[in-house]
Amino acid sequence: MNKPAIAIDLGGTKIKIGLVQGNTILAGTAIDAHSGNGLQERLPFVAAAIQALLAQQNLTVTDIAGVGMAVPGIVDSVQKRILSIDKKFGDAPGIDFESWCTNALGLTLAIENDARTALIGEWKFGKAKAVDNVVLITLGTGVGSSAVIEGKLLRGKHFTAGILGGHSVINYKGTVCNCGNTGCVETEAATWSIGAKVKAHPAFAASTLANECLIDFESIFRLANEEDFLAKQMRDESLDVWAACAINLIHAYDPEMVLVSGGIMASSSYIIPYLQQKTDAHAWTPWGKVKIESASYPDAAALLGAGYLVTNE
Amino acid sequence: MNKPAIAIDLGGTKIKIGLVQGNTILAGTAIDAHSGNGLQERLPFVAAAIQALLAQQNLTVTDIAGVGMAVPGIVDSVQKRILSIDKKFGDAPGIDFESWCTNALGLTLAIENDARTALIGEWKFGKAKAVDNVVLITLGTGVGSSAVIEGKLLRGKHFTAGILGGHSVINYKGTVCNCGNTGCVETEAATWSIGAKVKAHPAFAASTLANECLIDFESIFRLANEEDFLAKQMRDESLDVWAACAINLIHAYDPEMVLVSGGIMASSSYIIPYLQQKTDAHAWTPWGKVKIESASYPDAAALLGAGYLVTNE
After folding, report:
1. What is the ipTM metric for this complex?
2. Fold category of A5-119+300-312 in CATH
């Protein structure tokens, strides 16, 4: 058995840290991201949390294979730099994470986009085990994606291949996205965008959604279930957006399986059958049907994949 | 120098046949496709045209390396079968082309999707020479695509990867496509669909487009240039559809270059700068800008690529 790795999942709200060995998270902790203040000032706290986690487990850095970091942005996994990330972590492209890892912890670093590490987790340890052609879609604050084609994780020349499914244009006359383009999947149906979309609807005041403190997909699916007309419309439009996203990814990468993960998947019992039915009907796959499934490790896959990269790349 | 190959470009109107050696078409001919009658009944005429071409060049089949066939559909290049194709050639999936090639000509066969062979032609002999990450878009009767990623032609597990860019959903509430899905690139802006779209517009009768015998992109670009309001609207919407298509393909495959080819490219002086400007502004490429260029061999690339496959795969 390999030594365990330290895996870091850099989220906009929480930075999750796990002690990972194979398919198991032996122990974990988390600290607030305070991402509005940038990432540099959080790194000493990340190092301290890692040291505390090791001490709690009676381990030292000599027991650890290295650090694997999952990042919600475009990552140069060779130079170990973040190339592009949400402005909340605007200072991240300037940070030399490898030096930080060496200096603060005495450990080597692997760094990768978080949708890719999540897919690695599912591909090595979850439902996509032994599936050599698989796409992951994460539906949450944003919409992420990643792809394994013919047994190889797709990265591309400039590290962007596979991970921009949330910025697939599915409504070219639609709403402007925070990326500047029009009609991306994310701007049409993700947690960051749906509240504004609902409130801008002319019928908003007449909907029970107007009584909600927080408009998100939990409230939309719940009130749709109670037959609120606007919640039903927003639910159904969002499902069609995600179906278009899934079809575009199937057409792009020719997978056998699409795994769906992310915060919105609390409503997976509704989402998965809908996506299966739409992709069965409309993805052009003369060989058969692509399996649409919810992910095995919606919370842990990114950590498992980051740990895998430490010991296998 | 390798022996020359016979290349066949199976179009819906014409079946083009070329004697191909490297980047040169030594001689060529074409026969009507009569595609409404299926393909089986055309094969004796294809064989006769090949024999006539060889005789005209004072060659026999022993001088030829083999036959390369470019097909506008989904092709199993290993089993050498057509998996899916427009219903005009509805009998094609049942045809054993390899046996036909052996029996009628005494030659081996390579068979591939035509957008892939066109990209091979551009990649080996044209503007994409030595570019290891490149996407081709063909704008014509339909919209085709193909991709080379990290020096490898993308085929995918079931032979559909890269070639379905024309069925990327860019308008999920839009028009129903002939594939059954809604809002594909093709149904929003291709030669087969644009006439019906123009005629269905409420302002059609008031437009000078109503005086045209044939409504296609030639007439649309021409009358837009003469300030016809509907022609301008249709031109601009079509450009935005193709820009969304290009952005989706850039996001999917992370290329350095996008080549654009196909019949519509008679208006390339207008189309290429527009696509360059839109992808510069809206494709998420933190490393730099993707070059958008018109193809080197808009008419011959598919033949050159099919010939290349014969002698190199």
Report:
1. 0.94
2. Nucleotidyltransferase; domain 5 (3.30.420)
